[in-house]
Amino acid sequence: MTEFIFSILESIGFKHPIHPAITHLPMGMVMGGFLFGLAAFLFKRPELSKTAWHCAVLALIGVFPTILAGYMDWQHTYEGEWSNLIKIKMLLAFIMIIFLSASVKINAKTDSISVPGLILYALCLLTGIGLGYTGGELMYG
User: Following DSSP, what letter does each residue of 56-116 receive, concatenated?
Assistant: First the structure.
């Protein structure tokens, strides 16, 4: 199935990996969620905490197709080889789902950002940084 999808994409001139093209959605939303959460906390602006929550929801939705694209690229480019970097990325992706799910759940019940809510947004950001760094190491050494 993966090779079929890549052959269709190559037939229309798209010869790049799919995963890097869509990682910007969840990673941008994770960064936005943290920054809006931080601003809501520092400036006591409850409307910004709601914006942070919306970012976390969109990041949670976007993380699943991003993981699927990463899996497809791994199968296509690396033929499913279990390198340490792939293992780290898979672990971090699982951790990201947990942190995002917890962020969405905890921050949905309040009109203002709490310290635990902000910490969860920060953990999502740190996990995203780890995913990006590991992906860069995987692609560029």
Answer: HHHHHHHHHHHHHHHHHHHHHHHTT---HHHHHHHHHHHHHHHHHHHHHHHHHT-SS--HH
Give yes or no for a contact between 111 and 105, defined as CB atoms under 8 angstroms apart: no
Question: What single letter denotes the amino acid at residue 32?
Answer: G
Task: Map residue 17 onto helix, strand or coil.
Answer: coil
CA–CA separation, 27 vs 22, rounded Å? 9
Residue with tokens 């279990």: 82
Distance of CA 71 to the CA centre of its chain: 14
Burial state string for 2-34 with b = 16 or more CB within 10 A and e = fewer than 16: eeeebeeeeeeeeeebbbbeebebbbebbbbbb
Read off the pTM. Answer: 0.91
Mean pLDDT (the chain) is 93
